Amino acid sequence: MASSQEFCVFGAGSIGCYVGGRLAASGATVRFIGRERVVQEVRANGLRLMDWRGADLRVPAAQVHIDTAPDALSTADLVLVTVKSSATEDAGRTLASRLKPGAVVISFQNGLHNAQVLRDVLPGRTVLTGMVPFNVAAQGQGTFFAGSEGTLEAEQHAGLAPFLDAFARAGLAVKQHADMVAVQWAKLLLNLNNAVNALANLPLKQELSQRAWRRCVSLAQREGLAVLAAAGVKPAKLTPLPPHWIPGLLELPDGVFAVLAQKMLAIDARARSSMWDDLHAGRTTEVDYLNGEIVRLGQKVRVPTPVNARLVALIREAEAGPRRDWTGEALLADLTQAAQARA
Ligand SMILES: NC(=O)C1=CN([C@@H]2O[C@H](COP(=O)(O)OP(=O)(O)OC[C@H]3O[C@@H](n4cnc5c(N)ncnc54)[C@H](OP(=O)(O)O)[C@@H]3O)[C@@H](O)[C@H]2O)C=CC1
Ligand SMILES: CC(C)(CO)C(=O)C(=O)O
Fold it and tell me: What is 7-178's CATH topology?
């Protein structure tokens, strides 16, 4: 398709630099808007995009267009919003006065409502919901590593059609979906692990290899599934097993799990959740947009959610103060107690 298309990544971090970087490495024109620290890092090193299958792509520094100023918004045909959820409204306001007529915006964020938040501040604009299934770790010096598998998904919309070839050329083909709400809820169920991973303070692979941590995730997911059932929401199938089978799988002993859940453990040994990234960097996390959504929907449909409420509280505590050294057994006992106290 026309190489005159221009992409803009708003929020040059792990996802933005990786997805935008791969688009740029395959010949697309991409401009990045990010914070000073990332701008300096990328200007000094260029971008290196690696994945667990062995991809190793580079965009030399001289060819990366990255700035803290949002000027690139005024020439972009497609804007990828890749800020964390709490920064979405602010991002939308910056887009509002700058987007050119006909520009399309896509939210490649976790959580449920980011696209709607953008629509509210961008009336009359085409704002699409996207979903990123894979993990990306920022490794420093402009290197971004995708450490797990998965296909980008986006809401089915004619506005996306002109850009699909560029994503495919970048090795990031986009699967289009009629029902993104089901996709987002399914991703959110998987993201209930983010809080457990952040508290575990371990790489994902190490955390998910230990049954006690997995049982914590299972408790949170079972609660989430009960809430969704009561609300009449059927989450999409994003993994080899459907969502309602995953808690049972997580509860299996380590040896059996390692054999049956090879795909779930096929994660780079260094990869950690985006919530761990935030805690580690001293930033507010997205817990309210993930576990918090289960709590809010639970209140609406009158299904108790003590486990997710407790995870929200523990992450809030970790955001505010010194890190507590959890073991999987200790967190499991804490969450089980929270669940029993409510019963
Ligand atoms: N990392 C991962 O593996 C995955 C992440 N996701 C989701 O993707 C989204 C993005 O996550 P991720 O890439 O990890 O986040 P990052 O924090 O790595 O990147 C977002 C970047 O955007 C910057 N930013 C925020 N507001 C602005 C602004 N107004 N102007 C310029 N820059 C801005 C942030 O800076 P600052 O921190 O200073 O605000 C940060 O550097 C999240 O919703 C996350 O849940 C989904 C799948 C996997
Ligand atoms: C890919 C996954 C599920 C785990 O890294 C994620 O979405 C995140 O870290 O936020």
Answer: Rossmann fold (3.40.50)
Two structure tokens written together for 294: 């289960």
Instruction: List, for the chain, all residue ranges whose pLDDT scores fall below the cut of 50.
Output: 1-2
Distance 237 CA to ligand 1 centre (A): 25
Q: What 8-state DSSP symbol labels residue 46?
A: -
- Please provide the DSSP assignment of 24-41 as one string: HHTT-EEEEE--HHHHHH
CATH of 181-341, one of 3.40.1190.20, 1.10.3720.10, 1.10.1040.10, 3.40.430.10: 1.10.1040.10
Mutation to probe ligand 2, out of 135, 207, 270 (largest number of atoms < 8 A from CB): 135
Helix (H, G, I), strand (E, B) or coil at 178: coil
User: How far, in whole angstroms, is CA 41 from its chain's centroid?
Assistant: 22
The residue whose two tokens read 């509280």 is 313
pTM above 0.95, yes or no: yes
CB 172 within 8 A of CB 55: no
Q: What is the DSSP letter of 103?
A: -
Cα–Cα distance measured from residue 85 to residue 105, given in angstroms and rounded to the nearest whole number:
15
Read off φ and ψ for residue 307, nearest 5 degrees: -70, -50
For residue 284, the CA-to-ligand 1 centroid distance in Å is 12
Instruction: Please give the C-alpha separations between residue 111 and each of 114, 144, 293, 300, 330, in angstroms, as whole numbers.
Output: 7, 22, 8, 18, 28
Give pLDDT tens digits for 69-128.
Answer: 999 999 999 999 999 999 999 999 999 999 999 999 999 999 999 999 999 999 999 999
Q: Are 195 and 294 in contact (CB under 8 A)?
A: no
Q: Where are the domains of the chain?
A: 7-178, 181-341
For residue 134, give the ligand 2 atom closest to its CA: 1
Q: Residue 1: its pLDDT value, please?
A: 42
